[in-house]
Amino acid sequence: MDYKKGYSIIRCDRSGVFFGKVASLKGRTAKILKARQIYHWTEANTCLQIAKDGIGADSQVTVEVEELTLSDAIEVIPCTEKAEKIIEALPEWKA
After folding, report:
1. pTM recorded for the entire structure
2. How far, rounded to the nearest angstrom, does the alpha carbon of residue 29 sit from its chain's CA centroid?
3. Per-residue pLDDT tens for 45-76?
4. Domains of the chain with CATH codes
C-alpha cells in the first residue's frame, strides 16, 4: 500500500501519533497535510491496529490543520479505507 494514496498513521518519537496525508518524507522529517493528532484512543492496542481497524468513538482526536511538519517521524502506516472513514468521522476534540 502506498502511503501517498490516502491517509496514514504517523508515529513519532516524541510528539505523538498523527493522522493525515503524507506529502513528503525525508529521513525522519514528514510533511503532513490535513493533519490531526490522535491524543488518546480506545479500541486499538497499537498504531498498526489503528491504521487497520480505526479507533473507538470515545477517542480524542484534535482539530485538523492544513499542513504540519514533523521532525521525529519513526513510523508511517497507510490506513485502510475502514480506518480512514472512522477517524475522519470523529468530532474534533478541543477545549
Report:
1. 0.94
2. 15
3. 999 999 999 999 999 999 999 999 999 999 99
4. 3-89 (2.30.30.100)
